[in-house]
Design brief:
Length: 726
């Protein structure tokens, strides 16, 4: 055992710190003693030091298995800054050329290198295994160890091969580290790495300096984020999106609005990614718009906000990404935009995967939905997910605690839930229990004949939101638990069994209201939430008059979100009007004159100061794509070929085409429709929209029925809007 004062002395010598954070010192002592070690420590807690310092103090080279090239580069640069020799740390991955690889091997063989970062893929190569057998290895460190578990948010199959390869190279002590692991993921990691006897060092997951908020995701999300960034000018921020296309598009929008933003995603070449990452670290850019690939282990302590443009696939992913804010203990704002539709899309993407993988993915999405919709303290919900109890009733640092909702007594509700879980022998999930209470005759309920039991429909006096809140808050209170091994089956705890016999007060808050139709959600969420409801109402009246005069449905003229944006930004010229979402030059010219006249008069009469700063500029390169699509359609190119040429999914092409026709440009797609659709189907869908009061897609799908696909309905809606509105 190395003397304790020597460890502190080496900390000062190598890193310039006088004291350790949290349980770092205890962990390092354990690693130095040559025993397997498991470290659960939140982002910003100082995980890296737990293997960096021992590597400098022990004989040989520590092998650090790390998932990302960007992460390796960042860590190696940091280690070299602490040393006077570049050879102290190296990485070995696909980004190196032959000469660089030879230099790395030379430094390793000479004993100069104390830390070698390798990707799991590099570790599997036979020549690398052969080479590593030739050097003295002090220990192995598996960073971002949650990648081992298929229940983890960044599951990497190659991580599951680490143990056999280590055995092949030569057994040495092992340290596994992660910032996010539920009890299930922790068990998976230890089992797979063959370290079930390892000492586990678990730090609290509570990041007291972080503020958590979930907002309704509406059509004006771009405007809302731009306004937020402008109000936090000069501060560093990360915006996470789920798709590369969204990253590229939104980065372009930010740049067009004079925000110093850069993109980061796995589809970019490594040189550009590295350049953008360095620019962010060096403060040449304020904002990085990224997919989840960005930020693992990136040592930037002063990120002041993390915004999720799309809700993540799992709470683990969300926690780790928000953890990149306020690593210095200072301000850290974590804002996520949520629309239930986004989760439905993610669930759709899982189709075609193995059933077990789909089940896991669905459970993770349900946990995310529960977090987004809850009106409970968000900190309490997050920490419970990671197996930690947060006892304070109000954390004072999340949207729900700052704006608490009224509580209701739910003692009888909880008894009802617990009794059903017992009666069904703990073999069903929350969704099933809620459907049973509400009397929903699902195929599953009918197959088990539970629609014939006394419990069926016994909770019809309350809505789905109430029953979901009861179950979620019962889980956090410890009356119920989820058997995650069996995809979320509800189990009753000893505390729950006592509650059935001796009920006590159980007060809950109902879940937050989130509109399920994000097409009709304006800025700041909720119907008719424009800044100026009087103007909004006047414009709706004007739209109705125009609708009768022109004999077209009101939505053909301007959609509700466009009217709401007008009642927020007060466009007083046709040029101003073209900056409103869903309004292009054609639509402004055709319908806009009367609207801008009405707005101008309202502004003058009420002496309104127009919020010029809320104007969001559009992006030229997006316009180029739209122009190209219009030109291709004019040439009668098949839509599938247009999508293929531009690397778009077909639904993404339909998104672009909808934006084109909603903005007032006419496109003729009859040549394509007549090729791919039945004439009767085209006529039926067209007539539906002619008679409908709304162009809402979900309502159209519901009313038209299963005979018509979503794709067909969208195509004919584009034809209808183009012909009627433009």
């Amino acid at each position: 055992m190395v003397k304790k004062d020597l460890i502190t002395e080496k900390l000062k010598t190598h890193f310039g710190f006088d004291t350790f954070k949290g349980n770092q010192k205890e962990i390092i002592e354990h690693v130095l003693s040559g025993r397997d070690t498991f470290v659960l420590m939140p982002t910003g807690g100082g995980k890296s030091l737990c293997y960096q310092l021992p590597s400098l103090m022990m004989e040989g080279t520590a092998i650090v298995i790390s998932p990302l090239i960007a992460l390796m580069k960042n860590q190696v640069d940091a280690m070299r800054n602490f040393s006077d020799a570049d050879g102290i740390a190296h990485f070995l991955n696909s980004s190196l050329n032959r000469a660089a690889i030879e230099q790395v091997k030379e430094d390793l063989l000479s004993g100069h290198t104390k830390l070698l970062y390798v990707a799991p893929e590099s570790l599997t190569k036979e020549d690398n295994i052969e080479f590593l057998r030739q050097i003295t290895i002090s220990f192995y460190a598996v960073d971002e160890a949650h990648c081992i578990s298929e229940w983890g948010h960044d599951f990497r199959p190659e991580y599951r091969r680490i143990r056999p390869i280590i055995n092949e190279i030569g057994k040495r002590p092992l340290i596994a580290l992660t910032a996010t692991a539920t009890p299930k993921v922790q068990h998976d990691i230890q089992k797979n790495l063959g370290m079930t006897d390892a000492i586990v060092f678990k730090s609290s997951f509570n990041r007291a300096n972080l503020y958590y908020e979930v907002r309704q995701k509406g059509n004006d999300i771009d405007r809302e984020i731009i306004k937020y960034i402008k109000n936090n000018e000069g501060k560093a921020g990360i915006i996470y999106c789920l798709s590369r296309k969204r990253v590229e598009d939104f980065t372009g929008i930010l740049k067009a609005n004079d925000i110093k933003a850069l993109a980061y995603h796995a589809g970019m070449d490594s040189q550009q990614r590295t350049s953008n990452q360095d620019a962010f670290l060096m403060e040449h850019a304020d904002v990085i718009v990224a997919t989840i690939a960005f930020g693992m282990g990136i040592d930037k302590p002063d990120v002041r906000y993390v915004i999720h443009y799309d809700i993540p696939k799992s709470l683990e992913g969300y926690y780790q990404e928000t953890g990149r804010a306020g690593r210095d203990g200072g301000e850290g704002q974590c804002i996520a935009f949520y629309a239930y539709k986004d989760l439905q899309k993610l669930e759709k993407f899982m189709q075609g995967k193995p059933v077990a993988e789909q089940e896991i993915g669905k459970q993770l999405l349900l946990e995310t939905a529960a977090y987004a919709e809850t009106a409970m303290c968000r900190r309490k919900v997050l920490l419970h997910y990671f197996g930690e109890w947060y006892t304070d009733d109000n954390c004072g640092c999340c949207d729900n605690c700052l704006h608490p909702q009224k509580q209701i007594e739910a003692k009888d509700h909880l008894v009802a839930v617990l009794e059903i879980v017992c009666a069904l022998k703990e073999k069903f999930k929350a969704e099933y229990i809620v459907n049973l209470l509400l009397g929903n005759e699902t195929a599953e309920i009918q197959s088990f004949r539970h629609n014939e039991t006394e419990h069926f429909g016994s909770g019809q006096d309350d809505d789905e939101k109430t029953w979901n809140a009861v179950i979620r808050q019962a889980l956090i209170a410890g009356y119920l638990t989820k058997d995650i091994e069996h995809y979320g089956l509800l189990r009753i705890t000893e505390k729950g069994r006592r509650f059935i016999n001796e009920p006590v007060s159980f007060r809950i808050t109902k879940d937050n209201e989130f509109s399920e139709d994000d097409e009709d959600v304006p800025l700041r969420g909720g119907a008719n939430c424009a800044v100026d409801p009087i103007l909004y109402s006047m414009m709706k009246d004007l739209r109705k008059k125009l609708s009768k005069r022109l004999e077209v449905p009101p939505f053909v003229i301007f959609q509700d979100p466009s009217l709401e944006a007008m009642a927020t930004t007060y466009p007083v010229t046709l040029e101003d009007l073209q900056n409103v979402p869903g309004v292009g030059a054609g639509k402004a010219k055709r319908y806009g004159e009367e609207f801008v006249a009405l707005i101008r008069k309202h502004v003058e009469e009420n002496e309104i100061e127009r919020p010029e700063d809320l104007r969001v500029r559009t992006v030229a390169n997006k316009s180029k794509l739209k122009v190209w699509i219009v030109q291709s359609i004019d040439r009668k190119v098949a839509l599938y070929d247009i999508a293929l040429t531009k690397g778009l999914e077909f639904n993404e092409l339909l998104d672009e085409m909808e934006a084109i026709v909603y903005s007032g440009t006419r496109i003729k797609i009859d040549y394509f429709l007549n090729d791919v659709m039945d004439e009767d189907h085209i006529r039926d869908i067209y007539e539906y929209f002619k008679d409908s009061e709304t162009d809402n897609l979900e309502r159209a799908i519901e009313e038209l029925g299963v005979a018509y696909t979503e794709e067909e309905i969208r195509l004919v809606r584009i034809k209808f809007l183009s012909e009627m509105a433009n």
